[in-house]
Design brief:
Blueprint: E1 8-16, E2 20-28, E3 39-41, E4 49-52, E5 67-76, E6 83-94, H1 103-114, H2 124-137, E7 142-154, H3 177-187, E8 192-193, H4 194-201, H5 205-217, E9 221-223, E10 228-231, E11 239-241, E12 256-260, H6 263-270, E13 274-281, E14 284-286, E15 290-291, E16 297-298, E17 301-303, E18 307-314, E19 317-323, H7 331-347, E20 353-362, E21 378-381, E22 393-401, E23 408-415, H8 421-431, H9 438-452, E24 469-473, E25 477-481, E26 500-507, H10 509-513, H11 515-525, E27 527-531, H12 535-543, E28 548-557, H13 568-584
Parallel strand pairs: 1-4, 11-13, 12-19, 12-20, 20-28, 21-26, 22-26, 26-27
Antiparallel strand pairs: 1-2, 2-7, 3-4, 5-6, 5-25, 6-7, 8-10, 9-10, 13-18, 14-17, 15-16, 18-19, 20-27, 21-28, 22-23, 24-25
Helix pairs in contact: 4-5, 6-13, 7-12, 8-13, 9-13
Amino acid sequence: MGEPALDQIVMTPKCKTSNSTTLIIERKSKASVNGDGTVHVAGGDHKGIVINKTAQSDLTADIPAQLSLEFRVFLVSAQTGKHTQESRHLQFWFISSLPDWQQPHIAQEFFKELVSPQEFPRDYVGFIKKLMKLMQHRYSSIRRLEIELRQLESVAPPTRPLSADESILGQKIELTEEKVLELIESSYPNPITIQDIANTHGWEMEQVASCIEQLQSKGLVKSLEHGAFTRVGQADSEIQIVKQMPTMVSAKQPTIAVITAQYCEKIAVDAMLENKETFVRYTTVGLPAVQLPDGTYYKPTRFGESNVYTLGNIGAHRIVSTKLPSVGHTREAMTAAGNTTTRLLGTFQKVDYVFLVGVGGGVPHYTDYSKHVRLGDVVVSHPSSNQKKKYVYTYCGYVRCGEGEGDFEFDTKEYCPNSLILQDIAAQLKSQEEKSFPWMQYLNEALKGITSNELEQDFTRPNADSDKLFMSIGERDVIEVAHPSPAEGASKRQEGCPRIHLGSIASGRKVAREDMLRQIFSAKYGALAYDCEFDAVIESVQGNCRDNFAILRGIADYKDGARRSEWQPYAALAAASVMKAMICGLEAPSD
């Protein structure tokens, strides 16, 4: 039976306390709206909007809401300048003909339009009016909304720390030991000089040298020749410095390669391996000759592109893991990443499977608990069922504004392996997620080993309270969005256990860092996570005729995973543990 004609949008006060107001907005037929003096019937541009002036007593006698979401806005007092939080809790009821599986999508799209930066309402009247207008003109499948506005305590406005690579945007980065260590780790295995660090970020060389001296005293950094420095390895006594990789018998040749980009990712992957041995190969390059005061010439030397390879076992499989010297937004960094990958696959020619393992930024779902990607979860690159063209990774190079408001054109390149063996194994792991999660065992075992080494970084799972979801509204405003709750009767996530999500992974600085573009791009291309532009790496993998590859991203933030955060080490470990579970699902090599 179809829905009756619901011609008017009616707003009715439900209740009011000293710090909260609750309102109902619902669809009603004209015949059911009282025409007495207790209502205001709008006209003109607001025709079809009705305001009840008094609260109704029967509004609580309804079925429970089908969906709800909460977000918090940060209000600034014009008199005092103090920030206060206000909770805005929306509950949704839908028309009976809307299938249950469509309800979260409708609620999420409604919410995105409600908080759209172009016309985000800055006062109560504007907020309520926008709710009513959206219901009237855009979302006919929403039957009723209940809105609670509640004042919370005074708070400091939220801030987002900078990562070292954001100096590209012209923002001054404060010089600290942590930032210097971050740059040395990012460059690893390439040694880096004091001058390199100082020049990149406009720091004084003397101050950089002082930071490095402190890092050396803590055993985190060591000096090499040519005035360069590098990170002290997890177990430097076991690292062999070689001019070229030693020849290996066929049985010891790795068949699986794992590529990481950040130092914590390399540690996480290596923690999954047994019988490890690490080789570092340094290269040097000559620089233009320099004339000394006595008239003689001196030709300086510096380190070039270096490589680190850790060999080990996972079950019956031989693994080689490497770390890219840097992945960034400069053409040089992208080229270097591709070159390192080509060198890896040229050195180890029996590699059949390639994993790109590390951290990324999750794409949250504000209303669907089962689809919501949270910090510590793992996204495995997988084609979506609704894709016309199969792809597991999308790189967006340029964004152009279209003719209409909010209309954008994206220049993209999509990637997909010729074989989906690894994706099928990931799907099988996810299908058994409620009964079995072997990656959790691997994670805990690795964590014990990492903890015993007393590393500088903490790989334990951060407190759940630190998993906060913020959304930027334009350039000035930020709202905090509550994580969705499970529907009644739905299975809940295992507390403290990373969930696996299957979907495409995206990259591109513009779409990853701007909230509005990020949402639009994610919806269009089905992206569940963003990372730091690995297109050059994937190009190299495909160019070297490797048909099986998968990208695994442990979720460290809700951007692209690039900035250092307390979730980064744990997210890297979660991704590495899922990688191990996938490798254990592969058939053993035949020779």
